[in-house]
């Protein structure tokens, strides 16, 4: 039986690596809004010795190395390979963590599948994003503390540098580091070991202070995240209507698992039926998995309270960001919590382990179906963005040869076109909504299935996402 479990685990690992290998070549670098708006320009800034940007610089520093000697397509692949490498490193650490999760062999296999084959894990490990770096250093700290390794001088400095690198990876690292502080506070280890742990975490924070001070000097804000809460309250945007909360909760469930919204599955004929079956199947699997997680937390949360308290600061950030700061940012809820998916999934799997008979088999099949649908969703999402990216490259090539000013009705498209064309492409709104003032009503210069480029008699060139 144990040999069979090992073979299944090996198959899961191989499938996850093969799918990622395919996605590395399929995913465009414009898949998310951040890479071409911030990360790629910041990488070139690093090469010039310019660290005036506010985003934590670790990924940009790593990406600057291949930028020294690669160009074109190979350079774009190399940028995506960095998060992939960090996934592989995270997987190695996670295989050491799984035995510490108090699950049986079957439960460990399910947890490995959910860790390796959820949509966020597949997409974030094959695009230019920060989350894989955060995941790796989070897993390193979790393993060290959960293993209760004695904090000698070697492990003290490992914790210190992992903490510092976590903070230099992404701003959410501050909340994760705060969670580890709470974890130590409530953990049942010797006081002496706790104090060493606090000093190691604090040492990591101290190493990050130069970056915070620089941000404060340049931007007037250490994290440069703005005053979203105050702005929301002052503009009467605080959510009070139950219908709004219900809608946001539903959208948060969709985006927690990266389930494509139903309104975007605009197919016809037999594909309409297939898309509806796919959507509701994925939604039901995600909802059942969420209920299992909640049931597991209610049943076993006291026993594993240290895990709950570890997640708490990041959970509070995700809730505040989604529901009170930027209501449209439900897409970030799952991404912010991504580093703790393995803990959340473990609570759901614990419930499955305690279930018996047919019900247990059905729940295991639901987990398997969830992983398969996650693979399908990742490939479909990548293909969709690849198609859009191909058209953006066509538009970018066209405006390279045009003289004038350019405005776009979509923030994401504007940032991508700026990189592909080398021209300034403006987006005039403060939030990423379609700018109706840019309507491309002038002379058509270029038109694709998704974009229209036009020019009026006395107006700048306008680019419209249809």
Secondary structure blueprint with pairings:
Blueprint: H1 2-26, H2 33-47, H3 58-67, H4 72-97, H5 105-116, H6 119-124, H7 131-146, H8 153-167, H9 173-186, H10 191-219, H11 228-234, H12 242-256, H13 270-300, H14 305-325, H15 333-337, H16 341-354, H17 357-400, E1 406-408, H18 411-421, E2 425-426, E3 443-447, E4 451-455, E5 461-465
Parallel strand pairs: 1-2, 1-5
Antiparallel strand pairs: 3-4, 4-5
Helix pairs in contact: 1-5, 2-3, 2-18, 3-4, 4-7, 5-16, 7-8, 7-9, 8-10, 9-10, 9-14, 11-14, 13-16, 13-17, 17-18
Poorly predicted residue ranges: 225-242
The portion of residues forming beta strands comes to under 5%
Q: Quick one: how many beta strands?
A: 5
User: How much helical structure, as a percent, in the residues?
Assistant: 55-70%
Strand order of the largest sheet: 2-1-5-4-3
- Report on the biggest sheet: 5 strands, mixed
What value does the average pLDDT take?
88
- Class of secondary structure makeup: mainly alpha
Distance between the termini: 55 Å
| Overall 3D shape | globular
Number of helices: 18
Tell me the number of structural domains: 3
Question: What is the string of SSEs from the N terminus onward?
Answer: HHHHHHHHHHHHHHHHHEHEEEE
Please give the radius of gyration in angstroms: 23 Å
